[in-house]
Structure formats: C-alpha cells, structure tokens
Amino acid sequence: xxxxxxxxxxxxxxxxxxxxxxxxxxxxxxxxxxxxxxxxxxxxxxxxxxxxxxxxxxxxxxxxxxxxxxxxxxxxxxxxxxxxxx
Length: 86
Hints:
single chain, four-stranded antiparallel beta sheet, 3 helices
C-alpha cells in the first residue's frame, strides 16, 4: 500500500464536475483507492461519497492505493489533484 497527502488547490475544491473527473480517473485502476479527510475515509471510486465529504480549497487529503497498479494510480491521482483547475 502506498499513500500521499495532497492539498486541494482548485478554487472550488472537488465539487461535482472535478469530483466526477477524479472518480473517472480512479476507476481506471484495479487498486483499491481511498481518500481520507480528517477522520472520514471513503472510496475514491464513488462520486456520491466524495460529495458527502465536502472537499474544499486548502483541505489536505490522504490518497491511499493498494493493489497491483498502486504506484501508478497514486502518481496519477496526485498529479490530477495538483493540476486541477475548475
């Protein structure tokens, strides 16, 4: 398992449109992928759960990947978050 903490830099956070793009990116990988904000943890492959958490600009989230393609998945999702512009 690999994980990394990233800061949300997008002005509007991970609202519906970028959240949906993030989920689509996560679904490309076989690994189990979770996102943790504070004490709340959820599957990165569920838009509904992502929306419930309410991830805003400046929030720090931990992305964890566990599986055969975990390294590639983690790098891809962290790059996605870092380059996200509404």
